Amino acid sequence: MTSPPSDRSETVAAIWEAVQGVSAQWGRAYWRDCRATGRRPSEFMTGLADAGLLGIGVPENMGGSGGGVTELVALAEALGRTGVPLSGYVVVPFFCRVPVIKVGTPAQVEAVVKPTLTGEPSVAFAFTEPDAGTNSFAMRTHAQKIDNGWRLDGQKTYISGADEAPMLMVAARTNSAGKRAELTLFVLPNDTPGISVTPQNITVNAPEKQCTVFFDGVEVPDSAVLGEPGRGAAYLFDGLNPERLVAAGGSIGLGDFVLQKGVEYASERAPFGTPIGAYQSVAHPMARAKVGLEAAKLFAYRGAEVFDSGGDAGQLSNMAKLMASESAWAATDSVIQAFGGAAFDVDNDILWLLETLRLTRVAPLNNEMILNSIGTHLLGLPRSY
User: Fold this and answer.
1) pLDDT at 71 > cutoff 70
2) 0.85 cut: is pTM over it?
């Protein structure tokens, strides 16, 4: 279960081989230590960078390795299959740089895209707000036009790695309160006067911290605007569709990782003489989860193919993320049940997946909003929001 999909390209196979080489040096014990101590997985990130894996999706003329979302999905799946969670250290820079590559200035490319290739702290995405939640058009963070620039005021929360990243990508409304928010994206240094970052007391079994970011009269020049003012929502979807596809790839990989553990255990454990994997009550839940993971894989790679060819991959991204997160969660639950009490022994390295894969049903974009979108746009049902 550690070999690449047989129907994928030679490039995907090369990605899988490179990931296995990096993971062989910094494996599960390394990641458990990073999670336990809150230490940045610097050696692993450097290994990914040295293998050219962090450059996937970045044009070669910008110093990247080329390729598109298809290769990013393969990278996420391969990482998961080696037991490496798709942390914010990897996924946030990947989707932040998509709109910068498309509409950013050379200075913004230099400040945001280039650092993502090295594995060092690079950029955090300040988007989610405590009151708006998934209703991004209700955000209150506001950017007011001033002479030669803008002044930002507001608050963001659940911002991955904001305590380390030297750069921030910030979404703010640039029209009057009370109206449907007109969003603009800004790229600015994290040490700009008026910005303060407070780590939150959140555990998701990942080494990076979640933070609240405050903007109090933060003044930035016009050059901090990404693309055109007011077009931030359109630019966001350039990054958010790939984000869901990459997140799906990570969930698929981790789901297969834990299923492999379950298969090995259920094939050996035989308290009544017959391996418990022969019992349908053990086998069927794992088999059903495997079907879901394979279906999610079809959605994810098809969505990546559509996106890379310039098509609208919105609903394919939704379906991939939905199927991957629910099937990976089902896989984990079935394996825990097969292990019984042994699943709660930390040394068996299963329990950590409970938090990790439960989170994937909430972010990026919770599954209820995904179902709302599918109901409205694919089925033609009326909107409830």
Assistant:
1) yes
2) yes
